[in-house]
């Protein structure tokens, strides 16, 4: 299945989407797509097939988010913890990633037409080299797009992300770019893999598990959380509409809390040059992986 599909909603679903769109639509929704293996067990198919169905559901959900006018989506596709699964399952997930990122590169026209920017967040160095290259190519190909954003957390955990940010900041200090007093909440925020994104307004976890599993722990502090029992491959537009509806009923309160906790952005020349170095070195890594820089 393609990443970007055409809308297939019935007239009644379209009507419900229209009603929900009359209210406050979240700018950024994060998904913990859980329950693929239980789905496989329930349907007597291989685990790899459960993950395949999980990908199809992701493509469908992205289309629903476009229909709803949600401009940014982040999905938890592969946690660093998932490397501890059996070799067969990890290999199957890597093969799925290979196939799907290759397919993504072939969907350039559609991605450009919808203005979708793809970002993969995570510790790419943990992935097989060919997967790293495909990811870099996808990110570079769409980096000028700015209408819709899809962030795929792959080889990601929040602990790893924060460790990486602390490492970058300490290099900044030891290289004399920063003073320890320059380190603030907002600078930590801008050192994370998600530095280009606003925090999610809504996070949805499927499969009845009620925890975050090391996903966006810094960024979800003030998000509305929606847990649902449905297994990810069985997620429907009705579950998404229900989650957005619950968000809408609570958003005034959430917005008030978010505005009280906005970190004060302080900046100076040192901070600007540290950020130029940090983002420049990320860009260089991508260019090298994508074969665009020798
Ligand atoms: C959680 O279900 C799901 C995963 C670990 C993988 C999610 C991956 C996809 C939906 C495909 C996305 C692929 C790309 C290339 C973006 P689980 O395996 O933990 O199932 P369980 O909770 O029933 O054991
Ligand atoms: Mg699970």
UniProtKB/TrEMBL annotation:
EC number of this enzyme: 2.5.1.-
GO cellular component: dehydrodolichyl diphosphate synthase complex; endoplasmic reticulum membrane
GO biological process, alphabetically ordered: polyprenol biosynthetic process
GO molecular function: ditrans,polycis-polyprenyl diphosphate synthase [(2E,6E)-farnesyl diphosphate specific] activity
Membrane topology label: Peripheral membrane protein
Subcellular compartments: Endoplasmic reticulum membrane
Keywords: Endoplasmic reticulum, Magnesium, Membrane, Signal, Transferase
Listed pathway(s): Protein modification; protein glycosylation
Reaction(s) catalysed by this chain's protein: n isopentenyl diphosphate + (2E,6E)-farnesyl diphosphate = a di-trans,poly-cis-polyprenyl diphosphate + n diphosphate
General function of this protein: With NUS1, forms the dehydrodolichyl diphosphate synthase (DDS) complex, an essential component of the dolichol monophosphate (Dol-P) biosynthetic machinery. Adds multiple copies of isopentenyl pyrophosphate (IPP) to farnesyl pyrophosphate (FPP) to produce dehydrodolichyl diphosphate (Dedol-PP), a precursor of dolichol which is utilized as a sugar carrier in protein glycosylation in the endoplasmic reticulum (ER).
Record's subunit section: Forms an active dehydrodolichyl diphosphate synthase complex with NUS1.
Family: Belongs to the UPP synthase family.
Listed PANTHER family: DEHYDRODOLICHYL DIPHOSPHATE SYNTHASE COMPLEX SUBUNIT DHDDS, DEHYDRODOLICHYL DIPHOSPHATE SYNTHASE FAMILY MEMBER
Name used for this protein in its record: Alkyl transferase
Organism, as annotated: Ladona fulva (Scarce chaser dragonfly)
């Amino acid at each position: 299945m393609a990443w970007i599909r055409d809308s297939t909603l019935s007239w009644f679903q379209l009507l419900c989407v229209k009603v929900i769109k009359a209210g406050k639509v979240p700018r950024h929704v994060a998904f913990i797509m859980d329950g693929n293996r239980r789905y496989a067990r329930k349907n007597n198919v291989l685990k790899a097939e459960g993950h395949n169905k999980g990908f199809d559901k992701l493509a469908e959900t992205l289309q629903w988010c476009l229909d709803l006018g949600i401009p940014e989506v982040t999905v938890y596709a592969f946690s660093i913890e998932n490397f501890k699964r059996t070799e067969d399952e990890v290999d199957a997930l890597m093969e799925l990633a290979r196939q799907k990122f290759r397919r993504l590169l072939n969907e350039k026209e559609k991605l450009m037409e919808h203005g979708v920017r793809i970002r993969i967040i995570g510790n790419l160095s943990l992935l097989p080299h060919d997967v790293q290259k495909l990811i870099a190519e996808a990110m570079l190909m769409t980096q000028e797009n700015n209408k819709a954003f899809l962030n795929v957390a792959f080889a990601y955990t929040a602990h790893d992300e924060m460790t990486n940010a602390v490492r970058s900041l300490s290099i900044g200090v030891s290289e004399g770019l920063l003073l320890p007093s320059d380190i603030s909440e907002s600078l930590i925020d801008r050192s994370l893999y998600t530095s280009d994104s606003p925090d999610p307004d809504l996070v949805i976890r499927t499969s009845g598990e009620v925890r975050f599993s090391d996903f966006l722990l810094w960024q979800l502090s003030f998000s509305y959380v929606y847990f649902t029992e449905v297994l990810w491959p069985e997620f429907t537009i009705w579950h998404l509409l229900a989650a957005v509806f619950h968000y809408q009923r609570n958003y005034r309160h959430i917005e008030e809390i978010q505005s009280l906790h906005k970190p004060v952005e302080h900046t100076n020349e040192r901070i600007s040059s540290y950020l130029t170095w940090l983002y420049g070195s990320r860009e260089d890594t991508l260019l090298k992986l994508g074969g665009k820089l020798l």
